[in-house]
Amino acid sequence: MSKESEKLHIAVVGGGLVGALNACYLAKRGFEVHVYDLREDIRQLEHVPGRSINLAMSVRGSTALRGVGLEDAIVRDHGIPMESRMIHRPDGSTYAIPYGKKGQCIYSVGRRFLNEALINAAEQYPNVHFHFHHKLVSANLSKGQLTFENLTSKETQETKTDLILGCDGAYSTVRKQMMKMPMFNYSQTYIPTVYMELCIPPDEKGNFKMPENHLHIWPRGQFMMIALPNQDKSWTVTLFMPQEIFDSLDTPSKLIDFFEIHYRDTIPLIGKEKLVKDFFATKPSPMISVKCSPYHVGSTCVIMGDASHAIVPFYGQGMNAGLEDCFIFNQLLDKHDNDLGKVLPEFSQFRNPDAEAICDLAMYNYIEMRDLVNHTCGANVIWAAFNRYHW
Fold first, then answer.
1. Among 73, 81, 114, 244, who pairs with 105 as Cys (CB 3.0-4.6 Å)?
2. Is the pLDDT of residue 3 over 70?
3. CA-to-CA distance for 231 and 78, rounded, in angstroms?
4. pLDDT for 88-134, tens place per residue?
């Protein structure tokens, strides 16, 4: 039955990038939207733990932002254009591989800035309500029933809604509920590589220490390092290696010796003292790839973003695919006059093949970035697929 004239009540589980963007799209349709997030309000935090500092946004993500009028404020005014991948050889020499034709680029955007901008935009709608520090403890997805624990007051809150929208990440609680249901397919893969974030600070004059309009890559076979520019002229540096190599670097001297061999040109950029301090102040984090299907339960529940297709970061499409989920879902609501009984099955059927393809491409692109990027034949294999999915 069409619900075009009804004011649907939507519960969005997860207030990250995908959840907050969905809130904007759904609020524009006049729906009553409640967003429940396990975390505190990130706008009130000095530091947001556990997530990458910056992200690479492509046309997929910027198109989704354009649909709610946020592309210019986030991408054009805040993003830093990256026109190519700048490859750093072990001897310190560099060369660039353009991302596309002249004028094409991707953008480095701050995760926190983007999330805060989306939350602020959603809150401009009087029909959007955020509930932070709320943990989903149980659900009846077929009936649209949810039970949350308020982690501040310790009170339990039950709600019934027309649609549950699970946007709660790679370790989704909503998806765990779906896994209890028949005919739900699920697989996850932890890759043997883990990652750690380091930082190249601005120079003494407050400027970038490297050319800023590139994504810098240090490919080294079984491991690699990348760097994305930040608005404050620093660089977020991400080191990807097998856990056993991280474990072997257990003293400052071993760490410096390792960087002298593999990443010599970054030592003066980071600084020896800062490198040692930052490296031993944190632990490497794992990376997971998730595939599942279908993405929906009847006409009452659907999952999006990492909850439905967690993607390792080597293709730069995890965030972009999640934001594109929101855009496609909104198009299907238009197509079917808000009839959830038609929208949800078509979303699963249409979205799943593309999402799984990007998951696979991301896994292969890690091999290219760390190794094949040094070989013309390997790079050529990637470009046809890259151009199809990246732009």
1. 81
2. no
3. 7
4. 999 999 999 998 888 889 999 999 999 999 999 999 999 999 999 99
d(CA 372, CA 381): 10
Q: How far apart are CA 346 and CA 23, in angstroms?
A: 20
For residue 1, the SS3 value is: coil
CA proximity to 303, closest of 123, 136, 69, 80: 136
Residues 6 or more apart in contact with residue 324 via CB below 8 angstroms? 60, 61, 63, 64
Q: Tokens for 1?
A: 């039955």
250 Cβ partners below 8 Å, 6+ apart?
A: none
Yes or no: say if 163 and 10 are a contact pair by the CB < 8 Å rule: yes
Strands 9-13 and 163-166: parallel
Amino acid at 80: I
What's phi and psi for 194, nearest 5 deg? -120, 170
Residue 165's contacts (CB-CB under 8 Å, 6 or more residues apart) are: 10, 11, 12, 13, 19, 22, 26, 301, 302, 303, 304
Q: Which among 170, 191, 192 has a CA at the least distance from the CA of 290?
A: 170
- Whether a cis peptide bond, with omega within 30° of 0, leads into 294 is yes
Helix (H) or strand (E) holding 109: strand 106-110
Nearest-angstrom CA–CA distance, 255 and 267:
11
Its pTM stands at 0.91
Residue for token pair 């619900």: 3
Q: How would you label 217-254 residue by residue, b for 16+ Cβ within 10 Å and e otherwise? A: bbbbeebbbbbbbbeebbbbbbbbbeeeebeebeeeee
